[in-house]
Fold this protein.
Amino acid sequence: MATITGRIEIRANGQLLLSKKGATLKWGGVMRVPVVEDDYQGFTEEVSEARVTVTVTDRDDVSISRLNDIIGGTINFDAIGGKQYILNDVTAKGDPTLTGGEGGVELEFFAPGPPTEILNRTFV
């Protein structure tokens, strides 16, 4: 039976992020936009960036400023069970948000194009 994406591991420039549930990967690339007036006339195309949003645990051994300074980096978005998505030329959006009481910092990263997808990767 096929494995469904559930748990995620995220690495920024090789560093494993202690991420909380709910990390997202927006694919990016060419996006089709419908053109509708009185009826459907077709579509136009726009280019959209790829985007990763993740909340990391803010511990005393985690440098949020170092993660926030990433320009031209790499993000690995790995689904435990087999799939891996790699984003290159990644830049941190900046302005991270810290949530008190939970120790979570929300970070966003963007890349100019869609990720490379690798299927059936085995984690050990």
Remarks:
- The CA atoms of residues 8 and 79 lie 5 Å apart.
- The chain has a mean pLDDT of 90.
- The radius of gyration is 17 Å.
- The first helix runs from residue 64 to 68.
